[in-house]
UniProtKB/TrEMBL annotation:
Catalase core domain mapped to chain residues: 1-309
PROSITE patterns, per the entry: CATALASE_3 (PS51402)
Task performed by this protein: Has an organic peroxide-dependent peroxidase activity. Decomposes hydrogen peroxide into water and oxygen; serves to protect cells from the toxic effects of hydrogen peroxide.
MF-aspect GO terms: peroxidase activity
Lineage of origin: Bacteria, Pseudomonadati, Pseudomonadota, Betaproteobacteria, Burkholderiales
Name this protein carries in UniProt: Catalase-related peroxidase
């Protein structure tokens, strides 16, 4: 086990320390949504989320990283965090990212990567030799950056794909478990900006763009599950399932409202991906198990400082 305090300390050193803000996904906005599960969801899992009755969801959209002033008009990570408020007080939380892979395979490797990126006390910049030596020995840490570099700047929080990255097990009424990796795909399709368009948009446009888009029409995502087959790697957040794997639709998430400012029910939630409903189980990915404790450390710090976003 990696000390969660060390992980959050390292994130603060690399990403900057901003009191009151999440130590990752710092720049965000609350929204509300409704989820309606599909017949296919009910076949795969007994989870009440898939009953077919509308379920309220507390949503948070954010830009990756610890900087609450992070620019919206550069390539990189966007996040979709969800809390499904299910019948009988049951809750399902998840934090999805706009890449099919995370930036490390294990918490030890993630800490090593963060340590290699720490600024040198003299130059105030990361030491390129140290960064290269760690990445050469741990090539998995470059996969996510390569993916983001290959993708244009998203035009909207509502027009980009968000992956769960980890494997989860979906358990049916007979106890049969189907493993899979999920992806939230915008119903209206993907929309991107050219580099010139992104430049012209400036650093702050995603919150207002989403507010306008939701007010003017429908912003919705299909909750799709890629089904694992025997022999597939199930324990890695840096290895997507093969493209050829069958994808089924578990239901649709429709965004209902976006907070007009920095308030909202998402502010004090830590979206802990181990908070799962009956009928959905965590896979054995060490990266998934490692998330709960540092999130709690970050929540503790930001609540004590006065939660902001
Ligand atoms: C050990 C590895 C990781 C560490 C140390 C870490 C750290 C953090 C921290 C400190 C937060 C803010 C928590 C809060 O204050 O509420 C956060 C948020 C988030 N993380 Fe991670 N994380 C890790 C792995 C991952 C992975 C594998 C994913 C891939 C899906 C991920 C996706 C997210 C998302 C989407 C959020 C934003 C959630 C929100 O809007 O509140 N993280 N992470």
């Amino acid at each position: 086990q990696v000390d969660p305090t060390k992980l959050v300390d390292a994130q603060e050193v690399v990403g900057g320390k901003f009191e009151g803000y999440r130590r990752s996904g710092a720049k965000g906005v609350c929204a509300t949504a409704e989820f309606v599960g599909s017949q296919q969801g009910r076949v795969l899992s007994t989870a009440s989320a898939f009953s077919g009755k509308p379920v309220p969801v507390i949503v948070r959209f954010s830009v990756g990283g610890g900087n609450p002033m992070a620019p919206d008009n550069t390539r990189g990570q966007r996040n979709l965090a969800l809390q499904f408020d299910l019948p009988k007080g049951e809750v399902w939380q998840m934090g999805n990212i706009s890449a099919p892979v995370f930036g490390a395979a294990t918490p030890e490797q993630f800490l090593g990567r963060l340590e290699s990126l720490q600024p040198d006390p003299e130059t105030k910049k990361a030491n390129p030799e140290k960064v290269k030596a760690f990445a050469d020995a741990n090539p998995e840490v470059l996969l996510q950056g390569k993916y983001f570099a290959s993708q244009p700047v998203p035009a909207s929080y509502g027009a980009v794909n968000y992956w769960g990255v980890h494997t989860f097990g979906f358990v049916d009424a007979k106890g049969k478990k189907q493993f899979g990796k999920w992806i939230f795909e915008p119903v209206g399709g993907l929309e991107n900006l050219t580099d010139d368009e992104a430049k012209a948009k400036g650093a702050q446009f995603l919150f207002d763009e989403l507010r306008q888009r939701v007010a003017a029409g429908t912003v919705a995502f299909d909750f799709n599950l890629q089904l694992a087959e025997p022999g597939d790697e199930l324990d890695s957040a840096v290895k997507p399932l093969p493209d050829a794997r069958k994808k089924v639709n578990l239901g649709r998430l429709t965004i209902k409202s976006v907070a007009p400012d920095a308030t909202g029910a998402c502010l004090t939630i830590m979206y802990n991906p181990l908070v799962l409903p009956k009928g959905v189980e965590a896979g054995r990915d060490p990266m998934l198990a490692a998330r709960a404790a540092p999130y709690a450390v970050s929540l503790g710090r930001r609540l004590t400082e006065g939660a902001k976003q």
